[in-house]
Amino acid sequence: MKKNTRIQFLGFGFLYLSIILAVLTLGAIIYFITVNGIKVISWEFLTRVPRHAMTQGGIAPALVGTFYLTVGAILFALPMGLACAIYLTEYSPKSSIVNLLRMSINNLAGVPSVVFGLFGLTVFVKFCGFGVSILSGSLTLGIMILPGIISAAQEALIAVPQSLREASLALGATQWQTIRKIVLPSATPGILTGVILSVGRAAGETAPIMFTAATFYTRGFPHSVMDEVMALPYHIYALMTEGTFPERQTMIAYGCALLLLFLVLMVSGLAIYLRQKQRKYEFV
Amino acid sequence: MSSFEKVRIRAENVNFYYGSKQTLKDVSMSIFKNRVTAIIGPSGCGKSTFIRLLNRMNDLIPNTRVEGRILLDSENIYEPGVDVVALRRKVGMVFQKPNPFPKSIRDNLSFGLKVNGINDAEFIENTVRRSLEESALWEEVKDRLHESALKLSGGQQQRLCIARCLAVAPEVILFDEPCASLDPISTKRIEELIEQLKEHYTIVIVTHNMQQAARISDYTAFMYLGELIEFGTTEKIFTVPEDKRTEEYITGKFG
Question: Chain A partners of B164 at a C-beta cutoff of 8 Å?
Answer without folding.
Answer: 167, 171
